[in-house]
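Might you be able to review the protein record set out just below?
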Amino acid sequence: MYGEGVPCWVDAQLPDVEAGKRFYGELFGWTFEDWFGSFAQALKDGEPVAALVRKVDGRLPSVWTVYFATPDAPALARRIRDAGGQVVSAPVPAGELGVTALVTDPEGAVFALWQPEDHPGFGKRHEPGTFAWVELYARDTEAANAFYGDLFRDALFGPDAEPDFGRAAVTDVFSERMPPHFLVHFAVEDVPAALEDVRRLGGRVQAPPFETSYGEVAVVTDNQGASFALLRR
C-alpha cells in the first residue's frame, strides 16, 4: 500500500485506445487487459503499471494523468480546496477498485487522487517500461514547494520518504506559454534508442535528451498527442 502523497498510478486519456495499445505495447513491452469496454489496464511482466482510457469528450486533451495515493480522498480534496486548489471532479467510487477524484493545484496543474480498495496501484515501478518519476512544471516553484510540501509532507520529507516527484520551472524545458502541468516519466534503458522507437511508431520528440538531477530525460508525445517523458537513471 502506498502512503499518502506517493504517486501510485497513471493513466492516459486517448481518443483511440486500440491505437494506444499498439503504440505503448511495442514501445514498453506492455500487454493489456480490457475492462469495461473503454478501459485497458497495461501490464509489464504480468503486473499492473498503467491504464489507457477512451476520452468521453473529444474536446478534452489527450493526456497522461498521475494519481497520488491517499487513505481518504474526500478529506484530501477538502484540504486541496482549502489550500487554494480546485476540485474538478469530486471523489467518486470506481467500482470496487477504489475512490478517485480529479483536482488542480493553485496554478491549475491537474492531478488525481486514488483511495485504494481492490486496486492498490502500481504492481511494478522504477524498472524499464514502468513509471519512474513525475515532474511538476510550475510557474512559481516556491509556491508549488509550499503547497505540496504541506499537502504531502511525509511522502516528500518524512523519515521514510523516497520521493518520485519533483518540481521545476516551466521555462526550464518548455515555452513560457506552456501552462503548469505534471509530466509522467517512464524508465528506459537507452533514451536515444527509445526516441527512435517513438518516431517509428508515429510519435514525435518534444524536447531532446537533457540531464537532470534525477537522470537523462527526453520529452515526447505519442501518436495521439499525449505527452510523457523517457528517463534513464
